[in-house]
Amino acid sequence: MTAALYVRVSTEEQAKTGFSVDNQQERLIAFCKSQGWDDYKLYVDDGYSGTDTNRPALKRMINHVEEQKIDSVIVYKLDRLSRSQQDVIRLLEDVFETNNCAFKSATEPFDTDSPFGKAMIGILAVFAQLERDTMIERLTTGQRNRASKGYWHGGPIPFGYNWNKEEQQLEVNEEQADIVRTMFDMYLKGASRLEVSEWAQNRTAERNLSNHHSVAHILTRVLYTGKVKHNDQVIEGRHKAIVDDETYNAVQRELEKRKTTKYHKGKYLLTGLLKCGLCGCGITHVRRKGSKDVYYFYVCKDQHVRRKERKVAKCKLGYYRRYDIEDKVLQKIRSVSFDRKVIEKELNELETNLEDNEMLQRELQDKLSQIESKLDNLYEAIETGEIKASFVSDRINKLESERERVEVHLDDLKINKPKKNSSEKTIQLMENINETWDYLDFDEKREMLRKVIKTVIILPGGDVQVQWNLEE
Length: 472
Fold this sequence. Notes:
Protein name: Site-specific DNA recombinase
Number of strands: 14
CATH class of the domain at 3-129: Alpha Beta
Radius of gyration: 30 Å
CATH superfamily of the domain at 3-129: Resolvase, N-terminal catalytic domain
Coiled coil: 340-416
Domain Resolvase/invertase-type recombinase catalytic: 2-150
GO molecular function: DNA binding; DNA strand exchange activity
InterPro entries: DNA_bind_recomb_sf (IPR038109), DNA_bind_recombinase_dom (IPR011109), Recombinase_CS (IPR006118), Resolv_N (IPR006119), Resolvase-like_N_sf (IPR036162), SSR_resolvase (IPR050639), Zn_ribbon_recom_dom (IPR025827)
Largest sheet: 4 strands, parallel
CATH topology of the domain at 3-129: Rossmann fold
Order of helices and strands: EHHEHEHHEHEEHHHEEHEEEHEHHHHHEE
Structural class: alpha/beta
Strand content: 5-15%
């Protein structure tokens, strides 16, 4: 008989109760020896919650059960398998019984080989579920209590602040705070997130601010107004503000405003609409004097600026004649206006992107709530003296880093959430362009293009990819 010895412990449980991996392993091996079983394999999930079955060792064990490599699964207690009654029943009926695999506990009086044992499992699963629900209720209460007192929930120290250990709260780092204030001010004055990040990165090496995602996280973080946020609730915090409410709210309005294509007044039809297909930077225009005429080109901003500064350009997109690019865009408009299926297809893709965005936001928000619950549980236990901070410091650091990544991703999704429009409206505008183009002046042409085009991506070789403005 080949037995699978399944061991699971969450960091919180190990820290509080000494319910360690080693303790479980010793008990399970001793149980096997008492039964005269020498053929066994260990499957260990260290630091994983019992609230779901997304655990590497458990998945591996299930695969081995389904491959008929295991005759029996043994746990220290039923709740090591799962704290969800539904998951316990599913694993027993759909995995173990289906593959003639017995399930036993080293400390509880049941055995799936008997009807009484199966009934006992059901009862124990109910109590495991009850314990889990009670724990969640206690955590939720703890979260509300901490949030209502204005405590910062912990994590990597936010840029612009230091952590005062004696006062147990954030205090303003004036040097970094000046950078944060300038970042807000620059964005309000029209700088892009990329431009803000480049400026900030040149003034500090203490934190990675080299991408627009990090900038978005700072610009959208209500913490800089002296408040703390728990789930969707904003509470007055114990720390000092770096930016005032008026500035913060103005930046939020500007972020919302920039979700749609910005109107640029420029000398060229496509100014403000163009993006580099290699590096994602904006496109600028240059003029070159020939022997008989002046020629106009579109070129990647990164490539152009670095060459002007006599630096090696990272981007190699190249230079493309202005009129060639503009003609290709107009050809795209003409072809699409005669083929509604193209717009309908893109509209369907937009709807899918919108649904994906909303679904991912919900998933990330749920994940964020779970992380905050775990952190609140750990902080509460440290404050009450149930555990020592040194026991769980690594776990806290991992959770805090994960939370920051989730928050940055969530902020970026909210900023870039697409909005649906009707394809009929866009097609009608394209037909109007085709019919009236030759009669429009320059400003009217430029305005019409902005109504139907969101972005024009210049690809290597000079081809263009047009993203239609199907949003409101």
